[in-house]
Design brief:
mainly alpha
Length: about 120
């Protein structure tokens, strides 16, 4: 598990990206479980929310460059999870896992590689 050395102060862009990546990677591991199990869905949602919250700490220009028009949708999903706007639809979680997480991880990894 990634724990920033300077938490919570003086976080670099790389610290934030590594934290977000760690949350998304754990989310993918949780997704290997039974998606019919509410506990699995809850674990996935908590990691998804935490990963998006970590990305929110990026400077605006970096976040816009990495995620563009997808960012408001990502933040909206985080809000649904964090504020409990009813239960999160399992199908939405499943589609997010199938279609959205891989491109997010790819963008994070590319940014970390470029920074390295």
């Amino acid at each position: 598990m990634f724990w920033p050395k300077r938490w919570p102060y003086d976080r670099t862009r790389e610290d934030v990206l590594q934290e977000a990546r760690a949350h998304f990677a754990l989310m993918v591991q949780h997704a290997q479980g039974d998606l019919a199990d509410q506990l699995v869905i809850d674990a996935i949602c908590m990691r998804l929310s935490a990963g998006v919250e970590a990305l929110a700490r990026l400077d605006t220009s970096t976040r816009d460059r990495l995620f563009g028009d997808a960012w408001p949708l990502m933040w909206g999903m985080r809000n649904r999870i964090a504020h409990g706007y009813l239960l999160v639809d399992r199908d939405v979680v499943r589609r997010t896992l199938e279609h959205d997480i891989s491109p997010i991880l790819t963008r994070i990894d590319a940014e970390l590689t470029d920074a390295g």
